[in-house]
Every structure is written in structure tokens, then in C-alpha cells.
Write a structure and sequence with these properties.
Strand order of the largest sheet: 5-4-3-2-1-13-12-9-6
Enzyme class: hydrolase
Number of strands: 13
Keywords: Glycosidase, Hydrolase, Signal
Bound molecules: 2-acetamido-2-deoxy-beta-D-glucopyranose
Strand content: 5-15%
GO molecular function, one term: glucan endo-1,3-beta-D-glucosidase activity
Distance between the termini: 79 Å
Order of helices and strands: HEHEHEHHEHEEEEHEHHEEHEHEHH
Organism: Genlisea aurea
CATH class of one domain: Alpha Beta
Structural class: alpha/beta
CATH superfamily of one domain: Glycosidases
Radius of gyration: 22 Å
Family: Belongs to the glycosyl hydrolase 17 family.
Length: about 375
Amino acid sequence: MPFLRFILFLLLRLFAASQAFTGTYGVNYGRVADNLPPPESVVTLLKANKIKNIRIYDADHGVLTAFNNSGIGIVVGIPNEYLTGISVSTDQALEWVKQNVEPFLPATPITGIAVGNEILAGDNEILSEVLIPAVINVYTALTWLQLSHRIEVSSPHSEAVFAQTYPPSAGAFKESVLPYMVPLLQFFSQINTPFYINAYPFLAYKNDPQNIDLNYALFGRNSGTYDAKTNLHYDNMFDAQIDAAYAALEKVGYGAMEVIVSETGWASKGDENEAGVNLSNARTYNGNLRKRLMKRKGTPYRPNVAVKAYVFALFNEDLKPGPSSERNFGLFKADGSISYDIGFTGLVPSSGVSIAVSFKLPIASLMALTAMLVRFL
Ligand SMILES: *[C@@H]1O[C@H](CO)[C@@H](O)[C@H](O)[C@H]1NC(C)=O
Ligand SMILES: *[C@@H]1O[C@H](CO)[C@@H](O)[C@H](O)[C@H]1NC(C)=O
């Protein structure tokens, strides 16, 4: 009997692991904007482009309702400002899951809950302290609701958690991050959660254009870099950043944990002083990234683990603060047209008259309009 239970446990684990991500390509659906298409149109857009995984940064009920029966896997997010409350009370965690996840299941395939975003090595020490208790409370709540086998609890990190990423084998966490990172990894390894990293060759290049070959950052033709310790050659920075994460994990005893890229991307427009930001570089990065992911290949250091990534982002987001690049990461513009051609089709053609308006006209007013026209004729 214990043996059977163990097998069942393994099967559930396998099931959970394969549920969380379909294929290798996903997109972050950020909504810090006042001009985006309604979520129902976003479902149409994603389906037309066969995008099967998305992440949102909250648990907006309008979005979750629109994705009912869409078959598109969604990771929802608990925003950083909720973490303190959730960390002190399992009841609050339970309440959050009951309100924001449970009612939408199973028709809206919520596959994961990201607890906070880029907390460790950020500027808020208190958030670092509450992260682990918050993660544990959310997991406990899912267990009580018998949902922990199909909803993955995770927490994405920024590159700031690393002291070093070059060469990849030198990848290591910052000393200051270790007291939080190690127990977090310990818990995540117990519940089979991968390591999620927001990895941006875009930012690395922008911060150091003198020393980085743009083609290395863009998956273009270049001589690449050589890692003497592992004797591995890297022809693009994206793979190198992932392997630096594997190296850092290995150094603290979690080398077997899978690394998934929770964000990566390239802005198509920026300010004068933002190196490497333009339309053609964005198209090159995102086009090459898509091809790279479609090959379902691993990295030089983990050749058998196909890389999975969520692109940042689905749309340009006009209300994002910061430099212009922040508002121009979208594969699509706010009107639903493509930002540049990497093989996706938009809701509306890139140029010409937008037909998006007609989606918004309620049937009733269309009928009234028709009736009026009929009278006139
Ligand atoms: C989702 O669709 C199903 C019908 O397939 C319906 O029963 C259910 O109420 C819907 N859920 C939401 C949250 O709209
Ligand atoms: C984009 O920037 C690259 C350098 O980062 C430059 O070589 C290229 O000509 C630029 N393309 C356009 C269309 O401005």
C-alpha cells in the first residue's frame, strides 16, 4: 500500500510537472496600460498565434473569466504588496486562493501561482523576510483545497540575485541573498518547483555595450564565448545566463532543479541613451528566441533539459514608469497589431484602418443602427 501511494505520488508529480507548461514558448501578459484590447480579444490573439502559456501579474477576474475554456495555461501572480499579509496568516492565503483561483477552475487552466516578483536582492528587506512564509502559506492553502498537485507555487527572481554570471560556470548567488535563497530552494525542491529567472540579455547589453558583442546578445553570428572550466562554448547570451543560474544552484546543492525563464525580451523603442534599443534589434532578438525555443533544445550545460521561456511582453504598456524602453517591450502594439514581423499575426493589420472598434460596439447598438438605416432607405 505505501508503495502504491508512492507511485501515485510520483504520477501526480509528473502530472503536475507536465501541466505547468505546454511546449516551450510562453508570453507575459502585462496590463499596465489604459488602451489594451479587452481580454476576450486577447484570447483570440493568443489562439491565432498558438501561444499556449501566459503569465499575468495579478489575478484579474476579467482576464480569468475571459480565459474560461481557452485551454491556455495561466500563471497568476500575487503582487508584492500582498505578501506581508499572506505571510502572517494561512487564512489570508486560503482566502486569496478561494477568491482568485478556485472559482475559475477547472475551465480556466490556472497552472501556477507566482508569489511576488523579483523580491530577493531588491530594495525591500522586509519583503525578503516574508517571502518564504508567504510561499509556504500559499502552498498550505492549496493543499487544504486539494489543489497543490496541479497548481505550482513559485517566485521569479531577477539577475540581481547573482554575484557573478560570467563565465557561466562562475555563476553564484550573492552572499546577502543566500540566507533567504537557500531555504526557499529547499522548499521548492521538496514541492518540485523549478527556479524561475527573469533573464534579459537586453539589460546586460544596455548596461555594457562597449564590452558585449550585440550579435552575442541577439543570437546572431558571432565568435561566442568559451567557458574554460566546463570546456563549453556559448554562441548566445541567453543560454549563458541560464547556465549561470544552473551553476549558482549547483553551488548551493540544487543543481538538479530545472531553470525556467519567467521573463526575457527586447524593447523596440527607447531613449537616446539606451544602447541597442530599436525595432530591428527587437525583431532579431524575439524572432531568434522564438526559433531557439521551438527547437526544444537544452543549454550547453544542461543539453537534455529543453529551455522554456515566457517572453516579456505581449503588449506595449503605456503606463509603465521608467525609460521609454519600459513601455515598448510588446510583441504587439496596444491596438492589437504586430510591433514587428516574427511570424505572428495581429488582431488588426499593422497599418490601415483599425477594425478593433467594431468589436466594442454592443449588438444592441448595431441593431439600432441597422433599424435607423432601414428607415432612411
Ligand atoms: C466557464 O464556462 C463554463 C461552461 O463551459 C461555465 O459553466 C462556467 O460557469 C464558466 N466559468 C466562469 C468563471 O465564467
Ligand atoms: C539598430 O541598432 C543597431 C545597433 O544597436 C544598428 O546597427 C542598426 O542600424 C539600428 N537599426 C535601425 C533600424 O535603427
